[in-house]
Amino acid sequence: MRRREFITLLGGAAAAWPLRARAQQSDKVRRVGALMNLTADDPEGQARLAAFLQGLQEAGLAVGRNLRVDIRWGAGDGETIRKSATDLVALAPDVIMASTNQVMVPLQRATRSIPIVFAAVADPVAAGFAANLARPGGNITGFMSAEYGMSTKWLELLKDIVPRIARTAVLYDAGNPGGVPQFAAIQAIAPSLGVELAPIGLGDTGEIERGIAAVALSPNGSLIVTRTAEAIVHRDLIISLAARHRLPAVYPLRVFAVDGGLIAYGPDVVDQHRRAAGYVSRILKGEKPADLPVQAPTKYELIINLKTAKALGLEVPQTLLARADEVIE
User: Do 139 and 165 reside in the same domain of the chain?
Assistant: First the structure.
């Protein structure tokens, strides 16, 4: 969706067009909350929210006629997200859409009655958001981004593109509910691939810069960036540091490769936000989240940036290129 179209949707959602809503008394205005984990000016955050709003329109929910959407942004900050979750719950919306594990944790603590539909959440059963995938129970359901075990694919892809790598820095946030399980999955497979891991926290930019610089001092170093809001918020810095230190790096989402990262592998989380709107619509029509199965990704995307590979002096194997869903040249 183009930026102009997104701003039109967003502006309508924020204002809710009360005059038009009153003019059409035959339509009951439903209230939906949306808690996003990124910043309002992040193109990736805009794309996710725009997909959700577009999905609502496709389901017959028109902002200003029969729908009001209250939007809050977490900016990848735990305290901001907690306050935003409390704020949204206090508004008593009919349904809340939650983007990622980081957002889900405070929302789950804030309400056990308001229906919640999540998008881009990893391992919702392990995280305690659902009893099981088929019948999640409670007030929560949605669309999972991945099981933590798929994190091993990132290290395997690095070995495919640079077989000689011996040391890999792993950027993750130990304070994020999904951070430790992702690192643990990579850690479990590293010895069999002959790779030593160097964990790097995402607490602040200084920590990121020092950690990446330290790994770059070792021969045959590389970088894995796990799927967290903090990594997305700091992606420009991370991508530029990998380029500066000439480190081959693998990233968790398409947006990283589009912005200059070497290779990305992960689910289409933008589409998950569009699909989440369908569940919101079904709940507004009377279905219960407990009865709506959690849906897994329909596919994972492999994106390779050949321009970045050339800058690093890497020859991407043809077998890997053949597997790619998108090649950026």
Answer: no
H-only helix segments in the chain: 3-15, 18-23, 43-58, 78-90, 101-110, 152-161, 179-189, 205-216, 229-233, 235-244, 254-258, 269-284, 306-311, 318-323
Compute how many other C-beta atoms are within 10 angstroms of the C-beta atom of residue 278. 17
Domain count, the chain: 2
The CATH number covering residue 127 comes to: 3.40.50.2300
Pick from 86, 83, 54, 47: nearest CA to 69: 54
Count of residues making up the chain = 329
Q: Are residues 254 and 156 in the same domain?
A: yes
Specify whether 311 is located in the same domain as 184: yes
Per-residue pLDDT tens over the stretch 41-69: 999 999 999 999 999 999 999 998 999 99
Residue with tokens 């859409």: 97
Which tokens sit at 43? 């193109």
Supply the pLDDT for residue 9.
52
Question: 236 phi and psi, to 5 degrees?
Answer: -60, -45
- How many Å apart are CA 106 and CA 132, to the nearest integer? 20
- Spans in the chain with pLDDT lower than 70: 1-27
Separation of alpha carbons 138 and 327, rounded Å: 42
**Does one domain contain both 166 and 85?**
no
Expressed as residue numbers, the domain containing 140 is 3-146+268-298
Look up the pTM and report it. Answer: 0.87
Residues 6+ apart with CB under 8 A from 84: 35, 72, 73, 74
Are residues 26 and 135 located together in one domain of the fold? yes
Q: Quick one: 118 and 36 in the same domain? A: yes
CB neighbourhood size of 206 (10 A): 8
